[in-house]
């Protein structure tokens, strides 16, 4: 009987150790489905454009029924608005990581500009252009864009202040420098649609890095170079 009891306990332990992983809750499954739908939506917008991306396309690519898609996003307009928020919130999260690297001293101005150009010259900005074009004539899309874009810009403002902490006495110049930088990057990215000239864009980026260094003092400099 002793041996039988020990064997029974051992078998119980083995069953516990080999038990199936915890099943996801309904809320977790729903969140995962929404995440997949939004990721697929932005991928399709990148490849097909916003105008030609339909809910049928999204449902098929995401591997969900159209009914399931409409359960989460009752209309195409709502789906596109949420895809925009999803896109920018993801970018904000990644920008926050960059901000932490700057605060820790692991990234300088040159590194920040290189990273920002990498982001602007990648797929994110191309998808954003699709939304910006739609927002020009669609008030609902514009309303969805403004608050998230404002949050994104606030994150960049904080990063910029950490990059140029000794430029507080020229706060206006520092703010203009940030906005000029963003306009330059957007312009370069937009031009890259029809101009395949990476060397030129890199030269422009290096020129701007030098120009910024001459305009604004870095962390160890009291006055501009």
Automatic annotation (TrEMBL):
PROSITE patterns: HTH_TETR_2. Residues 1-33 are annotated as: Disordered. GO terms for molecular function: DNA-binding transcription factor activity; transcription cis-regulatory region binding. Residues 54-73 bind DNA. Residues 11-24 have a biased composition (Basic residues). It comes from the Bacteria. This is Transcriptional regulator, TetR family. The keyword Transcription does not apply. The keyword DNA-binding applies. InterPro entries: Homeodomain-like_sf, HTH-type_TetR-like_transc_reg, HTH_TetR. Residues 31-91 form the HTH tetR-type domain. Residues 1-10 have a biased composition (Low complexity). Keywords: DNA-binding. It comes from Roseovarius nanhaiticus. PANTHER family: HTH-TYPE TRANSCRIPTIONAL REGULATOR PKSA (PTHR30055:SF226), HTH-TYPE TRANSCRIPTIONAL REGULATOR RUTR (PTHR30055).
């Amino acid at each position: 009987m002793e041996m039988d009891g020990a064997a029974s306990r051992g078998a119980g332990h083995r069953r516990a150790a080999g038990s199936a992983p915890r099943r996801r809750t309904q809320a977790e499954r729903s969140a995962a489905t929404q995440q997949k739908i939004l990721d697929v939506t932005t991928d399709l917008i990148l490849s097909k454009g916003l105008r030609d991306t339909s809910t049928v396309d999204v449902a098929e690519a995401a591997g969900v029924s159209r009914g399931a898609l409409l359960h989460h996003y009752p209309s195409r307009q709502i789906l596109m608005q949420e895809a925009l928020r999803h896109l920018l919130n993801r970018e904000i999260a990644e920008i926050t990581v960059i901000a932490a690297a700057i605060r820790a001293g692991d990234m300088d101005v040159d590194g920040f500009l290189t990273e920002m150009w990498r982001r602007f010259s990648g797929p994110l900005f191309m998808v954003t252009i699709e939304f910006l074009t739609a927002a020009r004539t669609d008030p609902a899309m514009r309303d969805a864009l403004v608050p998230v874009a404002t949050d994104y810009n606030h994150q960049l403002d904080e990063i910029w202040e950490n990059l140029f902490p000794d430029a507080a006495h020229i706060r206006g110049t520092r703010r203009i420098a940030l906005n000029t930088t963003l306009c330059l990057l957007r312009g370069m990215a937009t031009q890259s649609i029809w101009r395949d000239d990476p060397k030129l864009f890199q030269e422009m980026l290096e020129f701007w890095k030098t120009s910024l260094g001459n305009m604004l003092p870095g962390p160890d400099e009291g006055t501009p170079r």
